[in-house]
Amino acid sequence: MSGGHILIVDDDTANIRALASVLEDRHEVRFATSGRRALELASADPPELVLLDVMMPGLDGYAVCRLLKTDPATADVPVIFITSLSSPEEEAFGLETGAVDYVTKPFSPAIVRARVATHLSLRRANRSLKDENEHLEALVRERTRKLAQAQREKMAALRQMVAGVAHEINTPIGVALGSASHLGDRVAAMTERLAANQLRRAELERFLASAGELAALLSSTIARAGEIVRCFKGVAADHGGLRQTIALRPFLEQVTESLRPQWEPLGHRMTVDCPADLRMVSNPAILSALLEQLVRNALEHAFPAGRHGLVTVGAAASGPETVLLSVADDGAGIAEGTAGRILEPFFTTRRGTGSVGLGLNIVDNLATDRLGGSFTIASRTGGGTLATLHLPARTPPDL
């Protein structure tokens, strides 16, 4: 039986048997001999289609149809009137009550089967479309919820970043303002003494020495504020450029050579470890910025003063769809207790030397948001640190 569940409603059992004989070979057929009983059956177990007589005692077919259409459980069940009333006015009235079709008695078995098949197909198509719409609406709601959550998380991260920048910049600005104010007071005092011919050489020499110290302090604090702003711009910077096919070995050699003025005067060495034929499709400007930041981080943190070391910039395939770019050093490794925090914005163990603590956070953000990959950094077994960019061999075009 491949058809649907059909309810036949007629007060004449002969009519019920005639309709059932036409349909029961393809459909599950139930019946009711009164309008009231039909409503009870339909409410308890809604059929897929109702064949409904009009002229019945008690509730007639029109009333039954209206009640079926007002019940949410049966509102979408198609109703076909099968009646001896054949005037156009009766047919129009039946359709106005909510029926989808109108068949007059005596009926043609072929016509009944065709009408039933048509309206069952339409109902199933409508239900399928409704289910698909509900599914799509659920997906839209979930997507909207996730976007709203992501927006809230971004705003929270932005607030944290802005608060961090404000805190970091306030310190050097406060020092600079204090130094400038103190220098201004000293200049005013010296100007008064000079005007009164009370200025002595020893006082002038002390003033000049103090002014030189204050000028140096001003210069260093303003430079620190500028470095913070530079790093902060790096978080949101559009590094531009288009995706290109990159031959990685010459690309890495070019990056290390461009950094020679930073590592060679310190006595360090740099090498490239990359297969000659390895390629990837990515944004070379962003890749270069990431690698330069990782090398600078190694030069700044890996080696104690006076110690010379080796920094290796490498690349390797990790399956057909992933490339690993790495910067490794043989330095001191990551200090115990700091591994879980080094990607946090403004976290640094060398604040006293001018470190801002944004470099690795910038690397993490760019690797994830702009290249569709991820970033890890950890101490190496045997000493040193390994920073690894896990990147798609082909950066997605929508990033």
UniProtKB/TrEMBL annotation:
<dbReference type="InterPro" id="IPR036890">
    <property type="entry name" value="HATPase_C_sf"/>
</dbReference>
<dbReference type="InterPro" id="IPR004358">
    <property type="entry name" value="Sig_transdc_His_kin-like_C"/>
</dbReference>
<dbReference type="InterPro" id="IPR003594">
    <property type="entry name" value="HATPase_dom"/>
</dbReference>
<feature type="modified residue" description="4-aspartylphosphate">
    <location>
        <position position="53"/>
    </location>
</feature>
<dbReference type="InterPro" id="IPR011006">
    <property type="entry name" value="CheY-like_superfamily"/>
</dbReference>
<feature type="domain" description="Histidine kinase">
    <location>
        <begin position="164"/>
        <end position="395"/>
    </location>
</feature>
<dbReference type="InterPro" id="IPR005467">
    <property type="entry name" value="His_kinase_dom"/>
</dbReference>
<dbReference type="InterPro" id="IPR003661">
    <property type="entry name" value="HisK_dim/P_dom"/>
</dbReference>
<keyword id="KW-0175">Coiled coil</keyword>
<dbReference type="Pfam" id="PF00072">
    <property type="entry name" value="Response_reg"/>
</dbReference>
<dbReference type="GO" id="GO:0016301">
    <property type="term" value="F:kinase activity"/>
</dbReference>
<feature type="coiled-coil region">
    <location>
        <begin position="119"/>
        <end position="161"/>
    </location>
</feature>
<keyword id="KW-0418">Kinase</keyword>
<dbReference type="InterPro" id="IPR036097">
    <property type="entry name" value="HisK_dim/P_sf"/>
</dbReference>
<protein>
    <recommendedName>
        <fullName>histidine kinase</fullName>
        <ecNumber>2.7.13.3</ecNumber>
    </recommendedName>
</protein>
<dbReference type="InterPro" id="IPR001789">
    <property type="entry name" value="Sig_transdc_resp-reg_receiver"/>
</dbReference>
<feature type="domain" description="Response regulatory">
    <location>
        <begin position="5"/>
        <end position="120"/>
    </location>
</feature>
<dbReference type="Pfam" id="PF02518">
    <property type="entry name" value="HATPase_c"/>
</dbReference>
<keyword id="KW-0597">Phosphoprotein</keyword>
<keyword id="KW-0808">Transferase</keyword>
